[in-house]
């Protein structure tokens, strides 16, 4: 039996980025700030920033596991408030640094040994 999407199971946020090598230091500094804060939020079970070095583009991924969809939704609101307090505009920052991002939310593909869609 497959659980409903809001059954309290973990939700994963996987974001991937293509960052020009010349801007990796600035992006890494910003990611350290963001993910340092994310790790303090209620419901954050796993929080990593991953990198595959290359030139002229570096591939970066962020992976966060949330306790459930409610925790991820609350974190989204908290992050918007966090950015607003800092006067930080993520879209503008990425555009200025020519960073291309792809953002997605996922859930486990298997549940009790069965494929979940």
UniProtKB/TrEMBL annotation:
SUPFAM superfamilies given in the database record: Dimeric alpha+beta barrel
Domain of life from the UniProt record: Bacteria
InterPro entries linked to this entry: Dimeric_a/b-barrel
Q: What is this protein called?
A: Antibiotic biosynthesis monooxygenase
**What is the scientific name of the source organism?**
Rhizobium halophytocola
């Amino acid at each position: 039996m497959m659980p409903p999407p809001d059954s309290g199971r973990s939700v994963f946020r996987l974001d991937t980025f293509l960052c020009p090598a010349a801007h990796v230091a600035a992006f890494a500094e910003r990611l350290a700030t963001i993910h340092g804060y994310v790790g303090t939020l209620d419901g954050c079970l796993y929080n990593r920033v991953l990198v595959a070095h290359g030139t002229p583009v570096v591939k970066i991924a962020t992976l966060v596991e949330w306790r459930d969809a409610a925790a991820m939704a609350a974190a989204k609101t908290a992050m918007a408030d966090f950015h607003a307090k800092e006067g930080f505009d993520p879209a503008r920052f990425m555009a200025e640094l020519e960073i291309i991002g792809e953002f997605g939310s996922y859930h486990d593909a298997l549940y009790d040994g069965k494929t979940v869609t």
